[in-house]
Write a structure and sequence with these properties.
Helices cover 34% and strands 14% of the residues. With 184 residues, the protein is an alpha/beta fold. The protein has a single domain, classed as Luciferase-like domain (TIM Barrel, Alpha-Beta Barrel). The strands form 3 sheets. Strands 1-2-3-5 form a 4-stranded parallel beta sheet. Strands 4-6 form a two-stranded parallel sheet. A two-stranded antiparallel sheet has the order 7-8. It is globular, with a radius of gyration of 17 Å.
Length: 184
């Protein structure tokens, strides 16, 4: 059985054990980029960055941080850990990671999940009572986006429906796009 070895980092802003002070978000993100570079040089398979919408984490836009990592690495696979799909737009997620896939030369991966915190629900105007149904609908659409273009989709929630091409305007849109395993 083959397996991958890598690093998953949530970009937490934990206090330094020596100084007792947390790093700034900018410092933490630059450290993550450097860590991905070293992981790549060391031969690790994957570097993944979590998504949080809280003050004690530096990364709220993993695709942006992963794009910076793509410019500083050669071989390592770059992934979210996890993309909080329940409170995000799967079309935008797919487009962002398809763009990352182009920048990285095919090394992008999305780990779609519900997240371990619920702070993104009120932040983006979602009702926590729709937690499971939103995730199921949005995961269904994300998987369909990867498999088809154009796409016709009708969800079961009030979230919406899509008819048409979501990849128009993306260079290399005829390529399959990032892989999309699911997480929690």
């Amino acid at each position: 059985m083959a397996f991958e070895l890598g690093i998953y980092h949530f970009g937490e802003l934990a206090p330094d054990p020596v100084t007792g002070r947390p790093p700034t978000p900018g410092v933490r993100i630059r450290e993550l980029i450097e860590q991905a570079k070293v992981a790549d040089q060391s031969g690790l398979d994957i570097f993944a960055v979590g998504e949080h919408h809280r003050g004690d984490f530096a990364v709220s836009a993993p695709a942006v941080v992963l794009a910076a990592m793509a410019e500083n690495t050669r071989d390592i696979k770059l992934s979210s850990a996890v993309t909080v799909l329940s409170s995000d737009d799967p079309v935008r997620v797919f487009q962002q990671f398809a763009t990352l896939d182009l920048i990285s030369g095919g090394r992008a991966e999305i780990i779609a999940g519900r997240g371990s915190y619920i702070e993104s629900f009120p932040l983006f105007g979602y009702d926590l009572n729709d937690y499971s149904e939103l995730f199921a609908d949005k995961l269904d659409l994300l998987q369909k986006l990867r498999a088809e273009n154009p796409v016709t989709w009708q969800g079961t929630t009030l979230w919406g429906s899509i008819i048409g091409s979501v990849l128009d305007g993306l260079a290399g849109a005829d390529q399959p796009g990032p892989s999309a395993p699911t997480g929690c």
